[in-house]
Design brief:
Layout: H1 3-42, E1 57-68, E2 85-92, E3 95-100, E4 106-109, E5 113-119, E6 121-122, E7 125-126, E8 132-138, E9 144-151, H2 157-164
Antiparallel strand pairs: 1-2, 1-9, 2-3, 3-4, 5-8, 6-7, 8-9
Length: 165
């Protein structure tokens, strides 16, 4: 390899690294801008009640994320709602509790739940044969969101849907 070819390759590599860095910077800026824009819309999540009845269903799996209803790909990025994590979903008479690893728990009061169904995809996560449990609920701010949850055992979805009916 002669020096001109080496120099051209190094310049190309440097330009490519700069372009990749700029693209990543723009993606991070877009994520933060979306979070600021949605912060007013989402508002505060309901507090976890001090006392709850006994759990009727408990399911382990993956918290996929939240989306603004009815768009399954308009991901919510406020706080830690935009990050996937392992989770345990528990049904109580007063509502639904989602306890996530390294994130705040999400409490969904019973009166806020509008639908529980299975979906093929939510928040950019696509699964086979209706592999995601979607819980649609109304926030105290009045906005409806969908929470996506992919269970380790998808046969447990039947119990969640029966409980919702």
């Amino acid at each position: 390899m002669n020096s001109a070819t080496l120099l051209g390759s190094l310049i190309f590599a440097a330009v490519l690294v700069v372009v990749i860095a700029v693209v990543i910077q723009l993606m991070v800026r877009g994520w933060r801008h979306r979070a600021r824009r949605q912060a007013e819309l989402i508002g505060d999540l309901p507090d976890v009640p001090g006392r709850m009845g006994s759990a009727t269903i408990t399911t382990r799996g993956l918290y996929v994320g939240c989306t603004l209803a009815p768009a399954w790909n308009d991901r919510v990025t406020v706080g830690d709602l935009g990050y996937r994590s392992k989770a345990v979903l528990t049904r109580h008479p007063e509502g639904i509790m989602m306890q996530r690893i390294r994130a705040k728990p999400i409490w969904i009061p019973q009166e806020s739940i509008t639908a529980i169904r299975t979906e093929r995809g939510v928040a950019g996560k696509v699964a086979a044969r209706d592999g995601i449990l979607a819980i649609r609920w109304r926030l105290p701010s009045g906005v409806e969101i969908d929470i996506g949850f992919r269970a380790n055992d998808r046969d447990e979805y039947d119990g969640w849907i029966r409980e919702a009916a």
